[in-house]
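Usage

Read records sequentially. Each one opens with the input sequence:
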Amino acid sequence: MDRRRFLARAAVAAAAGIAGPFAGVACAGDKGGAVRVQGYGPLRPVRDKRDGEVRLHLPDGFAYRSFNEAGSAFPDGSTVPGRHDGMAAFAGPRDTAYLVRNHEVGGPVGAFGDKDKAYDPMAGGGTVTLQVTRRGEVLKAAPSLNGTMLNCSGGPMPWKAWVSCEETVNGPDVGDDHSGGDNSKLTRRHGYIFEVPVTGAATARPIRSAGRFAHESAAFDPGSGALYLTEDCFSFPSGFYRYLPPEHPLKAGRLLDGGKLQMLAVKGSPREDLSAGQRHGASYATAWVDIDEPDPRFTGRPSNDEAVQAVGRQGRAKGAAIFSRLEGAIHHQGTVYFVSTQGGATAPGDTAPSGFGKGRGQVWAYETWSGRLRLVYESPRSTVLDLPDNVTASPRGTLVLCEDGDGDNFLRGLTRHGELFDFCRMEPVAGDPGAEFAGSTFGPGGHTLYVNVQSTHGMSFAIWGPWQRGAF
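and closes with the structure output:
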């Protein structure tokens, strides 16, 4: 056991915990209680079934295969882009799965795939749809949305679609972002969400009423028909949103434009700063404020920093709550769980990350039926949980957290009983110290966990093994 994992286990046992299950009422971080840490056992290096290389460390009994790496070819001869990110799995024929996967490619680098079908032929992001077996063998692969930009995460929809989110407001009407790309080369405005059907190509029509901001994830509530959206502003406050379409999507069969965008606020406490460290048992009654101009049109080509805050400032002017870097979100049994990557307090001895927010991560739960917001977990220090990003739920309700930390990156499980455990560790990617886990999603029946490593040399993985032995 290396020093990082030893410290992580010791810190969890001594300083972190959650009381009660997630089901029904989400629970709040208990920094003073003890918690029993259970998992699938110690991690060991495991060779990739594809080529024998060690890329992941897993518990005994688990195996994996990597597939569809950046730079490989689609059947049409075009090239798989890099920066594999958010992803969802849908049931396919004959015990296979359809995967719809984002690619977080920025800059005016040109669209992959067929440029005639691109939303913006100069933008290099989008989605790829694959049909794969439980063991990661690729049967089909093709671009399904192209010409979008910085497609970070999104969310699966029950009418067999994926909503892909652009984490940017780039466009010819906005100043260049900090990556150094030339926005004047772009032909369309970006910062929207797009619906991608599981089979077939997307229409590449943005849902403009759902806002033009740095979208991250989308979580659909089938009861109300609302789509909950997270925002990841690296250097500025972020908000938690919901989009109310003009017709229930389960009735319409798709997500319609023309609805209302709202932002979450804490009742009786305008502009409540939830990015800071939270008290034990933190829980808030909430309300929603309307965004009057969800799709702002800019004149005079404002700076990117100004443009990325245009929607959020409207909500905060009406009292909306402040979060730090909201990233992954998932709907599970009437509750939307979402991650604040840099939320919380800076622990003694830790270094505060750059950007807005000085903690090492929070997990929040919004109860759609009660309107109650509760803290599920707050990282006590980086050796326990380091900048969680994407999140999904296992068939048994355990949350799977993808880390985006400074050192070793893990897939960690957060059980319904408050146990945090290590499930998978990434072998460092040569030449890319910023590589991170992204897009975790369980396939049909829960037999396989599909996940991506986001990197310039990114790829996808299928992981299988004795799930019944632990919390997943």
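Summary fields computed downstream for this record:
- Residues 82 and 236 are 27 Å apart (CA to CA).
- Residues 3-15 form the longest helix (13 residues).
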